[in-house]
Design a protein that fits this description.
Layout lengths: L2 H19 L2 H4 L3 H22 L11 E3 L9 H48 L4 H6 L1 E2 L6 H11 L3 H27 L13 H25 L3 E2 L4 H31 L4 H20 L1 H21 L11 H30 L5 H9 L9 H34 L5 H19 L5 E10 L6 E10 L4 H11 L2 H14 L5 E8 L3 E9 L6 H5 L6 E4 L5 H5 L3 H9 L4 E2 H4 L4 H16 L3 E13 L1 E10 L4 E6 L8 H19 L7 E4 L2 E7 L3 E9 L3 H17 L1 H5 L11 H10 L4
Parallel strand pairs: 1-4
Antiparallel strand pairs: 2-3, 4-5, 6-7, 7-10, 8-9, 8-10, 11-12, 11-15, 13-14, 14-15
Helix pairs in contact: 3-10, 4-8, 4-11, 4-14, 4-17, 6-11, 7-8, 7-9, 7-10, 8-9, 8-10, 8-16, 12-14, 12-15, 13-14, 14-15, 14-17, 15-17, 24-26
């Protein structure tokens, strides 16, 4: 091979990757650019580990010659088609992760988080009803809005932490699995023989480990709190610390045992580690995309638990889900029938035919020197299979699920009604996959010279019964949970969230989180006595548009300068009530107003915020803010007091726990810590997550803003005495 041929070979193999990267230069700064970057990075990692790395096992094997008829030698178009078909297999196989695998993780994890929360609340003192009343969480934006914010923030701190943890616990899990296989008299043969039981189960093992770690992470990111204390953060801190403390030495020990016991299979074990790393990287790349939906599912479960005795289940219009479920199955079966008869049979031959046999034979890893034509056909079979089964079924079911949810009053009832129809299709799609795909070194004369590349090859897996049992929860439910996750994402895609605090008596406030409705409310929902919809004036309407309307419309819009509940606007007279319904519909259809439906709610005690102090970790005062003119304390005195108290508590108790709260009569001092500073908030009343969460947010934002100054702070206060900080306080602690 000449230097020129080598360069052309390299460029042709990388051509699809280059084309994939080019759009990044034009959309990098946009939200879609941040999303696209994660997808491209995931594909690159997938390409290197899944396709290229297996070359290390094939150094002692002869390169496959992809046979090309003499008449086709030099057919550049044919060669380019082969390259893109192979890359198409890579892309479709990669997308099985975000479409099938990751949804399982992000759907199951909230339920595990809920069980952990249930166990935590159950162990606390007090009656269950009182404890549930004091249980809260933090959610103020829709899943899509949170995803956009996280993508633009472009912080990888959590992702790095989770990735390190996955790396730590992998060797232990892998070694234990290998021991089980040996005890069961099951041989783990070389990957080149096509019988790699351990490798097949590695993906399922990754799914289970990632699900557990995400369930712990959700407890922290949802800021679930009991009596104002974020117990989720504490559980995460203790769990992760324990896994690091125990996992690191055990992982090192497991690696040593691997090297000693399986010297002849070290290269294979390295590949398994790399494969697990690939799956873990793809998982963290999609964390900010899927996690907001998981948080929403988790807080929905918490909200159901809190309201299960007082809130009746609304079964209205559930039959719509039955209709749409039946339509989904009929649509999928018809589409599958048409695509199978017209598409598959036309291109690849009927099942059992000689042509189909040659195609599948060309895709086997053990097949030597297959034809380029049949190798190309095998790539198309893989692409066709994934598109028609996995992707098409997901799209069809998701569309009908989302459309059906628009008609039901309860999302829970709608989803539960639709699940049997998802199961019906999943029975066709589910079960064990007894092969996995990789790349095999090959050479062909399609471009008129020796063009070295990788062909798509499948490895057969012999799966023992006990591994099938362990894998069953994932294999038999992945086609159910992926539809539910994607259904949630699409259903809430264009929805906005808004929260409103409503006084309940003299001591409590109910915080209600609303979401925008996609279709105008029905008359039955409108006339309900406890209809708790929120009506707001659309911010985008102009004064000119309002001036054209009749006086009644102008009066309603003027009244909506402040947000109003529907029950506050609805007339008492029955005739007027009916007429007002059509007036509201006119306002909604002409985009004068937005209507919000309650999604979540919880009670918390009122608390009067008095003063905020930011203190350096050595006790020096950094910044202070008074919420009341009559609350003026010497910042230096307050800083010194905290320094003395925290030192005294640590010395006397010998505890590693940080001081989080100080009670003094009717005054409570809440404390939240950063890396180099901590914030102290003086309140009058009982602590709740409604005051602790803003304190935590302010400490994080303040430290992020001044991280360079605080890193080596001299004590100068001029950096912090600015109107920007005062505005940050007002924005952070503002009441809804």
């Amino acid at each position: 091979m000449t230097v020129l041929e080598f360069i052309i070979t390299l460029l042709l193999n990388l051509l699809p990757i280059v084309i994939l990267i080019i759009p990044l230069f034009f959309i990098w700064k946009k939200t879609v650019g941040k999303l696209y970057f994660r997808i491209v990075l995931g594909i690159l990692v997938f390409f290197v580990i899944y396709w290229v790395l297996p070359i290390i096992f094939q150094t002692d094997q002869a390169v496959d010659v992809l046979i090309v008829p003499p008449a086709e030698v030099g057919n550049v178009g044919y060669g380019i088609a082969f390259i893109f078909a192979r890359f198409g297999t890579l892309i479709t196989t990669f997308f099985s992760y975000p479409i099938i695998t990751l949804p399982f993780i992000f759907f199951v994890a909230p339920f595990i988080s809920f069980l952990i929360s249930w166990n935590k609340v159950r162990k606390e003192e007090g009656t269950l009803d009182i404890k549930l009343k004091e249980l809260s969480y933090e959610i103020s934006e829709s899943p899509i809005e949170r995803t956009k914010r996280e993508l633009l923030r472009n912080s990888w701190k959590r992702e790095k932490e989770i990735l390190k943890l996955m790396i730590v616990i992998l060797p232990i899990s892998l070694y234990l699995l290998q021991v089980i296989l040996e005890i069961s008299n099951l041989q783990n043969e070389s990957i080149t023989t096509g019988e790699t039981t351990l490798g097949w189960f590695l993906e399922i093992l990754f799914v289970y480990l990632a699900t557990f770690i995400l369930s712990i992470e959700l407890l922290s990111s949802s800021q679930v709190a009991l009596r104002g204390r974020f117990f989720g953060e504490k559980i995460k801190e203790h769990t992760f610390r324990s896994l690091y403390t125990i996992g690191v030495p055990m992982s090192i020990f497991s690696i040593i045992l691997f090297i000693i016991q399986y010297q002849e299979s070290v290269v294979i074990i390295i590949y398994f580690f790399a494969y697990f790393m690939m799956a873990s990287i793809i998982f963290i790349l999609f964390l900010d995309i899927f996690e907001p939906v998981s948080i929403f599912i988790f807080v929905k479960l918490i909200n159901w638990w809190k309201k299960r005795k007082v809130k009746k289940v609304d079964y209205s219009n559930f039959y719509y889900m039955v209709i749409f479920g039946a339509l989904a199955i009929v649509t999928y079966l018809l589409l599958n029938l048409i695509l199978t008869n017209i598409g598959y049979y036309s291109f690849f031959g009927k099942p059992g035919s000689i042509e189909e046999g040659l195609i599948y034979e060309a895709g086997e890893f053990t097949k030597n020197n297959p034809s380029l034509y049949h190798t190309l056909q095998y790539d198309l079979v893989i692409i066709y299979g994934i598109l028609v089964t996995d992707i098409a079924s997901t799209i069809i079911l998701t569309i009908f699920l989302v459309y059906g949810l628009k008609f039901v009053r309860s999302l829970g009832v709608g989803i539960i009604t639709f699940i049997p129809f998802i199961i019906g299709i999943s029975l066709v799609l589910g079960g064990s996959t007894n092969y996995w795909l990789t790349g095999k070194t090959s050479v062909t004369q399609i471009f008129g010279f020796d063009f070295y590349t990788l062909r798509t090859a499948s490895l057969t897996v012999n799966v023992p019964d006990f591994l099938n049992v362990l894998a069953a929860p994932y294999l038999n439910t992945r086609y159910i949970f992926n539809v539910l996750i994607w259904g949630y994402i699409i259903f809430f895609f264009k929805k906005s969230f808004k929260s409103k605090n409503i006084p309940v008596g003299e001591e409590f406030i109910e915080k209600i989180i609303y979401s925008t409705i996609s279709d105008f409310i029905s008359f039955d929902a409108y006339i309900e006595i406890d209809a708790s919809y929120l009506i707001t004036k659309d911010k985008d309407i102009s004064t000119k548009d309002i001036e054209k309307e009749r006086e009644e419309i102008k009066e309603i819009l003027k009244n909506l300068e402040s947000h109003k509940l529907l029950i506050e606007l609805k007339p008492e007279d029955e005739k007027e009530k009916r007429r007002f319904y059509f007036t509201l519909r006119y306002l909604y259809q002409n985009k004068f107003i937005k209507i919000w439906r309650p999604e979540l709610s919880y009670l918390f005690e009122k608390a009067e915020i008095q003063g905020l102090y930011i203190i350096y970790d050595d006790g020096r005062g950094v910044y202070n803010y008074s919420f009341r003119s009559d609350f003026i304390q010497d910042p230096g005195l307050v800083s010194g007091m905290f320094s003395a108290i925290t030192s005294f508590v640590k010395e006397m108790t010998k505890s590693t726990e940080t001081l989080k709260k100080i009670d003094h009569g009717d005054i409570t001092i809440l404390i939240e810590y950063g890396k180099r500073i901590f914030g102290a908030l003086f309140i009058k009343g009982t602590q709740s997550s409604e005051v602790r969460a803003p304190l935590k947010e302010f400490v994080q934002n303040f430290e992020e803003r001044y991280q360079d100054i605080l890193k080596d702070w001299t004590g100068a206060l001029t950096h912090f005495n600015s109107d920007e900080n005062n505005k940050l306080v007002e924005d952070t602690f503002k009441q809804d």
